[in-house]
Amino acid sequence: MSIKSINPTNTNAWSDLKSHYQKIKDIHLYDMFKSDKSRASSFSINWNDFYVDFSKNKINKKTINLFSNLLEEINFKESIDQYFSGVKINTTESRAVLHTALRAQMSDEIFIDGENIVPTIFDTLEKIKLFSQKVISGSHKGFSGNKITDVVNIGIGGSDLGPSMVIESLSDYKTDLKIHFVSNVDGDHLNKILNKVKPESTLFIIVSKTFKTIETLTNADTARSWFLNYSDEDQLSKHFIAVTGNKNLAIDFGVDYQNIFPLCDWVGGRFSLWSSVGVSISLAIGYEKFSELLEGAREMDIHFKNNDFAVNIPAMLACITFWYNNFFNYNTHAIIPYSENLKSFTKYLQQASMESNGKQTDRSGKLVNYQTGEVLWGQTGTNAQHSFFQLLHQGTKIVPLDFIGFSNSFCGNQQHHNILMANFFAQTKALMMGTYGAKTETNHKLFKGNRPTNTILINKLTPKNLGSLICLYEHKIFSLGILWNINSYDQFGVELGKKLSKKILEDMKNQNFDNHDSSTRNLLNRYFSTD
Ligand code: F6P
Description:
- It contains 20 helices and 13 strands.
- It starts with 11 loop residues before the first helix and ends with a helix.
- Helix 7 (161-169) links the parallel strand 5 (150-154) and strand 6.
- The chain has helices spanning 12-24, 29-35, 39-42, 61-73, 76-84, 118-137, 161-169, 187-194, 214-228, 236-239, 247-253, 279-285, 287-306, 313-328, 345-357, 389-394, 414-433, 463-483, 495-510, 518-529; strands spanning 44-47, 50-53, 111-112, 115-116, 150-154, 178-182, 202-207, 240-244, 260-262, 332-337, 375-378, 401-408, 453-460.
- By secondary structure, the protein is an alpha/beta fold.
- The model has no long low-confidence stretch (mean pLDDT 97).
- The strands form three sheets. Strands 1-2-13-12-10-11 form a six-stranded mixed β-sheet, with helices on both faces.
- 6-O-phosphono-beta-D-fructofuranose binds at residues 156-159, 208-210, 213, 216, 269-270, 355, 491, 494.
């Protein structure tokens, strides 16, 4: 039995939240702080190296109780158990959703169709470990007997965004291998990388769960042809490996069977960085640090699975997002990490969240008549302050934000870090208070405040803490899927565009655009008539 289909708008808690919204919506956030001196400690969670302060939100104790009632009415706890235990909760594709198993301990048992998958996960981890150790130490050599110096990861979407974000975020921990990512089929992207590397010292990782993605296969083909200009077929195995769930297609492409790192169908692309897709991470920071990343995620898994709602970070952040989307009509959400290392974090989360929860159909196959999906965006602070923060402070739209910051920098430059973090603290305060109570000369200088934020303050950006942070958002995405009564784990919305581009490519070859609407036809004609 999979997750029950329960329309949240039909619950008692929904009606209660609706009346509660009417009472709370006009209370200024700063008034909430004035009337409750212990607000910050009531609405924050301390966990491991994390301090999550959600007190600057339009909530009070009653809101938390109503969220809790809602979670009970929609069988939230039971859904979490089903998620972790391998029930096929991705019902449209009849698949389990078990990226959490990739962080399991060897003694754990997780069954799919009667088979314990944990031993296979550890076999793969061992393969990743041995391979990355060989490449990092130089015992794996290229065709001319040289050490590998450069690794090119060819993949797109989940086969790119997770590992590239992690490697960039943990660049302070890197080995001496240079890791490059090619995702876009834009030939200029690949070309730029090929111009930087040498065939005799480059390892290509073709990452594609399906091994059918046109962008990845086109880039992989070009990379192989480029390589064969300098070497020959029987040297390919030293320079090409694959991460895939489709071994046969990888072998047809020319990858040696030994060089295939498996990917199972119960790992969704956007949640796959913990799997073989993470081989580039293990090469970039070493296997030990990769396993610390997994450990951080495992600890967050345990936190999410075992904790009651009031102290459960992912569930709390999900309910707050639900509250804003479905009652306040605040439809976008910005993520502002105060760490330049995390500059791709939002880009990564955009796929994880929007490909998961951008859905119009509920679990029972009916079109929904309420809002789903967060529009996520953002940039690092302080850069964002000098860009779009004007709108956040004085615009007519309210955008809830997550501020992510670290108590310690990596390089230890305290002067810089204090300035950075003073901005971090100042911004959430300014967004909450505005110029409350003060007379401003003109409305141009008025800050209304009353703008909600979550603050996630973490001791330090370590592999383990990054693992927990990513995992926090994975479980927030899951929780929102349960609240919205949608399947977060399929992605049929990407198919139509893929299908049409295949057809247009065919039409481009035949130079026949007659069957297209006038706009598409004109654009295609213009494309072919410009030098
Ligand atoms: O376009 C959507 C998608 O299927 C993503 O979900 C996935 O991460 C990406 O394409 C790449 O897919 P693959 O790993 O099969 O090449």
